[in-house]
Write a structure and sequence with these properties.
The complex is a heterodimer. By secondary structure, chain A is of the alpha/beta class. Chain A has twelve helices and 14 strands. Classes of the chains: A alpha/beta, B alpha/beta. The interface between A and B is medium-sized, with 31 and 33 residues.
Chain lengths: 333, 302
């Protein structure tokens, strides 16, 4: 698999190069959000705000009111936890075209509770006017910018940074589901970093004869309801969602709501943080500990099938391990 | 003489808010006392605004903004068309809405009938103004966000090389919010000298006198330390207000601390000091006494 180092860095430069109304806003996490290169090339469109997130959200609303399109870069947690009131009153209510670029979503950071945005989708899905996007590979990181910029209203994006696998060859498709495999036993929906992990599991499962439809979700709000329902036709045993987020209010809840509204009696297993906080540790460790890795998906599918495949971690493609310090990261977080 | 016009408007604001408070058995009356003189000065003399382009009688609320609602509107049109050389005026303490509506009527920007829609179901003339309310362009009822939004507008106008100023009306209670100080740091860092702030320093907040709620210290010292050019004036001295407002500091925002009296022009309210945030009546006798005393002062003392 192709691994891309810092796809966002160059993508943002190319995206913004000929768009003078695009402004790059940072809150003291410039290299951590891979916009240090932009700062050097376009200092007149780079604005350092220091650690003033509450102010910065309102400030971005003011810039947007005047026709600029501010892209505010910081860690996901700092975009909505501390400044939630500003997000609502300054940005969302007025439907301002502010782009909130959230880095290190979920448990992709060893920063622990203070740095792990594990309930952002749940919180933000309830905010009217807000669009929610999540990137699941290098291609989506590179192409999400044009998608976000085309939306008439505020957008929150979960951005994958550092060393990012390239899984897809086609660009980010707004409100579309990517079909990664097709089958009739179970339907798997994954998003963000869980897609790469789910692919490790589905590849092994398919070899044992399990028939799987695997959909990758990159637009969480709105949600491609019709495409999901079409993929569900003929699925025999049930659905598994796997998300880098608490199971309350995220992808699993989105699917549950649709099933209930449509009156579809299908088993649903929601993988993700089981209504718990995590703590500071490496990503593979946390994915395993909290059950959002390939083995957790295999066990969930076996449960739906009432059948044990006999697969163990030894049969899976190797886990990618990032070192604590590497060239693709500004710090150890 | 512009001074005569300012005094007429200021008296008109007090009279309208007073009549409205009687009619509704309560209202933000002391805010008219403290803010009428500087608001009249701003609207008549200081602000460079075009004539209102909004319907004289405000439209009903047309739903929140959003891609599926082409009908939503803001109240900014009461401040005229946007032009590069014109000023913008942002009202941060949205609970002063009644005072602002009265000011818009007195300055010919809104029809007197507009005030009949105040706090009526379905109306945009809301009690706590939001961006659809006359004179409002952004939603500021959650205090301290107005300054940050206006600062964003100020930076944007600098980038667009527009000559107009960005004025913000703040209440002193908002200086307790942390966001205010985040904003002043950024305003200082980007030298937003096209930004001008006027603060109603009436020393009042919901729970009573600010001194009893949370010791404010010296606003002037704090704001100066945060990089603003601070002018302290008597908020009822219209000549001093206009002189202060005419200052355009270089590389710094202007902050006018308008020291005001929360019962200016309605001496009877002094009896209620310091509980003046929202005036209501506990008995008919109290109502009658207040009405007689203030009516005498507002209509017969010239």
């Amino acid at each position: 698999m192709d691994l891309v180092s810092k796809p966002y860095a160059q993508a943002f430069i190319e995206f913004a190069r000929h768009k003078p109304e695009v402004l790059c806003i940072s809150a003291d996490l410039t290299s951590s959000c891979e916009i240090d290169g932009f700062r050097e090339q376009f200092p007149e469109r780079f604005f350092s705000m220091g650690m003033t997130e509450q102010h910065t959200l309102s400030f971005c609303a003011g810039l947007a009111l005047e026709g600029f399109r501010p892209f505010f870069h910081t860690f996901s947690v700092f975009l909505y936890r501390r400044p939630y009131d500003q997000l609502i009153n300054s940005i969302a209510y007025a439907n301002r075209r502010v782009r909130l670029m959230g880095f290190l979503p979920g448990i992709t950071t060893p920063g622990g509770i203070t740095h792990q945005a594990i309930e952002d989708i749940a919180v933000l899905r309830s905010v009217p006017n807000l669009t929610l996007l999540e990137t699941g590979d290098a291609t989506e990181v590179e192409t999400v910018l044009e998608v976000a910029d085309a939306i008439d209203g505020p957008v929150y994006v979960r951005v994958w940074r550092g060393l990012v696998p390239r899984l897809f060859t086609t660009p980010f498709g707004f409100n579309q589901l990517r079909t990664l495999s097709q089958g009739k036993d179970v339907l798997v929906l994954s998003a963000g970093i869980t897609t790469e992990e789910a692919m490790r599991a589905t590849q092994a499962l398919i070899q044992t004869g399990v028939s799987i439809t695997h959909l990758h979700v990159s637009t969480l709000k709105p949600f491609a309801r019709q495409a999901f329902l079409e993929a569900l036709v003929g699925i025999r045993y049930g659905i598994v969602t796997i998300e880098n987020h608490t199971i309350v209010g995220g992808l699993g809840s989105i699917v549950a709501e649709i099933l209930a509204e449509e009156g579809i009696a299908k088993k649903l297993i929601r993988l993700g943080l089981q209504d718990t906080f995590a703590h500071g540790a490496s990503r593979p460790y946390l994915m395993k500990k909290y059950g959002l890795d390939a083995m957790a998906l295999i066990r969930a599918i076996e449960k739906l099938l009432h059948h044990t495949t006999g697969l163990t971690a030894n049969e899976l493609p190797a886990v990618r391990l990032d070192t604590v310090h590497n060239e693709a990261k500004a710090e150890a977080l | 003489m512009w001074q005569d016009e300012v005094r007429r408007v200021a008296l008109g604001i007090r009279q309208r808010v007073f009549e409205h408070t009687l009619k509704n058995q309560g209202g933000y009356l002391s805010q008219a006392c403290s803010a009428a003189d500087f608001l009249a000065t701003l609207y008549i003399k200081t602000l460079k605004l075009g004539p209102s382009i909004a319907p004289p009688v405000p439209r009903p609320f047309a739903g929140p903004p959003g891609v599926n609602n082409p009908n939503s509107f803001t109240g900014a049109d009461y401040h005229g068309a946007k032009q590069p050389e014109y000023d913008r005026f942002f009202i941060s303490p949205a609970h002063y809405a009644l005072v602002i509506y009265a000011a818009l009527i007195e300055t010919g920007r809104m029809a007197p009938a507009g005030l009949d829609l105040f706090n009526q179901d379905g109306s945009s003339v809301e009690m706590i103004g939001a961006e659809h309310s006359p004179g409002m362009e952004v939603t500021t009822g959650s205090l301290a966000q107005g300054l940050s939004m206006a600062a964003g507008v100020a930076l944007a106008r600098k980038l667009k090389q527009e000559s107009g100023r960005v004025w913000v009306f703040l209440s002193d209670g908002e200086l307790q919010e942390g966001q205010t100080w985040e904003a002043f740091q950024v305003i200082h860092h980007y030298a937003l000298d096209n930004l001008a702030v006027i603060v109603d320093v009436n020393g009042q907040q919901c729970d009573g006198a600010m001194d009893s709620v949370l010791l404010p210290g010296s606003f002037a010292a704090k704001l100066t330390a945060f990089g603003a050019q601070v002018i302290e004036v008597d908020g009822h001295d219209i000549e001093a207000l206009q002189q202060a407002a005419a200052i355009r500091p270089l590389q710094r925002a202007l902050v006018i601390l308008a020291k005001t009296c929360p019962y200016q022009g309605m001496d009877y309210l002094k009896k209620r000091y310091p509980r003046l945030h929202y005036v209501r009546f506990r008995s008919t006798e109290e109502f009658n006494e207040l009405e007689a005393a203030i009516r005498q002062q507002l209509y017969h003392l010239k």
